Task: structure prediction
Amino acid sequence: MNDKSNTMLGVIKDGDVEKPANDPLVTIRAAFPRDLETLLQYAEVFFKDAPEIKDLNRDPEKMLVFLFNMMIRQDGFLLVSEVDGVLAGALIAVLDSPWYTSDIIAVEQAFFILPEYRGAELARSMLLCYIEWAAKMQAVRVRIGSSTGTDMDKIEGLYESAGFKKVGLNFSRGG
Result:
């Protein structure tokens, strides 16, 4: 694990926060190799939950390699959230320099929270960590979107509440 994840603001380490008796402890942190199997299991929920991709073939080996690479690459970002010690979601992003510019842009690859943990605050906190990471990595733009077809109105409101603006459309053919 490189130290980029340990210096990210917004990371809460176990024991750093005192919580009220009945409130769940929410932790947002960089993913560790020990999270890979759980993230792979959650990918199945992600596929079933997303109308646009649920019929696509899955390649568990490819997914594991991708997730691991996002943990170790300097330009990769793999953030997870935990609620009372249970992995609740993940946000994956990468830095990119598109063909038309030398500027660096942060591009979200996947953002998923298990249905039972969905709510604006957890998702918004993860988004803010992503934005903060992108700024530290000197990205001039931060991109996020959704092409899964899941809860599009809620997702649009969430992204707008975090300062994102709608800039395009996605279309799909096949399947």
In short: Confidence is low (pLDDT under 50) at residues 1-21. The two ends are 38 Å apart (CA to CA).
